[in-house]
Design brief:
By secondary structure, this protein is α+β, with helices and mostly antiparallel strands. The protein is built from 14 helices and twelve strands. Helix content is 48%, strand content 19%.
Length: 305
């Protein structure tokens, strides 16, 4: 009897051989593998050859082969915080034997609490975030992985997908975590209102320097069309500092939006100072000098009144 392999293996084109053997004769499965109608990437797992280039299929194959859960960057990819990439990371409980295969990294951990997103068992989000941070800050990390890890922390916190306290608690459970102090610093920066790497850089190298005034991060101002949140503000002087990244401020639509916002703020007595990524990184002292000059001018106006 002919079988339609795609329907037998399901939408992702992957199955455990034990599960498949409940539907068809085991000898048929072996014959399909020998005929290359099925591929066996790991012991006990078969995949449709046409599905091998799909990340989703490889992820499930890794889970089936290890009886583990997706973790680290693989879990973050399922949580849609980073792009899908290889190698595939899976965590299993300590004491079990780790399967070794190219493109697969198996982590043995003492405590393993899993969540589920669609068909995937995954480590819960705060755990995946901290795991990836340790991986990036460790000896096998690299610049790209560090960037991915930092971006995932910022995005998860900014979008309120994970609470700052949850990340801190997860980091506190692992005092030997590589880069732990920098992770806690980043969490605090995002908690206080830095919602991008540019804002974080601007705060560290521009706003938080001796002699600079105290800024209120993400200060809310009600405008006729919306309530806006200023990157940094000196409310008593009605001075706003906006840090413009190319990704959000480079298009014509974004510039028009910024102009409309600045005009509405000006109508309420605010002065808006905008600094681009290029200016902030190439001339931070000049940016600070301009902010201080405007502060002095605004104070002088207030005295005259």
């Amino acid at each position: 009897m002919a079988h339609h392999l795609a329907s037998l293996l399901g939408p992702e084109g992957v199955a455990r051989t034990t599960d498949l053997a409940r539907k068809v004769d085991r000898h048929s499965v072996d014959e399909w593998v020998r005929a290359r109608r099925l591929h066996r990437p790991y012991p006990g797992v078969v995949v449709l050859p046409a599905a091998l280039d799909q990340w989703r299929t490889r992820a499930l194959a890794a889970v089936y082969a290890t009886d583990g859960v997706l973790s680290h960057t693989s879990a973050l990819a399922v949580w849609r915080l980073v792009a899908q990439s290889d190698p595939m990371h899976v965590s299993i409980r300590a004491g079990r034997r780790a399967l070794r295969r190219p493109g697969l990294v198996v982590h043995r951990v003492q405590d393993l609490v899993s969540d589920r997103v669609g068909p995937y068992p995954v480590t819960e989000l705060a755990r995946a975030r901290v795991d990836t941070w340790g991986l990036a800050a460790g000896r096998d990390g690299g610049r790209r992985l560090v960037e991915v890890s930092r971006g995932a922390v910022i995005t998860a916190l900014r979008d309120r997908r994970v609470r700052p306290d949850a990340l801190v608690a997860e980091a506190d459970r692992r005092p030997a975590l590589p880069g732990r102090s920098e992770l806690l610093r980043l969490v605090e920066l995002v908690r206080s209102g830095s919602h991008s790497e540019l804002e974080i850089w601007g705060v560290r190298h521009g706003l938080e320097k001796p002699g600079m005034p105290r800024f209120v991060r993400q200060h809310a101002v009600a405008l006729p069309f919306a309530t806006v949140h200023l990157d940094a503000a000196i409310p008593e002087l009605r001075i706003a500092v906006e840090l413009d990244g190319a990704a959000f401020h480079g298009s014509a639509e974004a510039r028009e939006r910024d102009t409309r916002r600045d005009v509405a703020l000006a109508a309420r007595g605010w002065v808006v100072l905008r600094f681009s990524y290029r200016r902030l990184t190439s001339d931070p002292e000049g940016c600070r000098r301009e902010i201080l000059q405007v502060c002095a001018a605004r104070r002088a106006l207030l005295v005259q009144r």
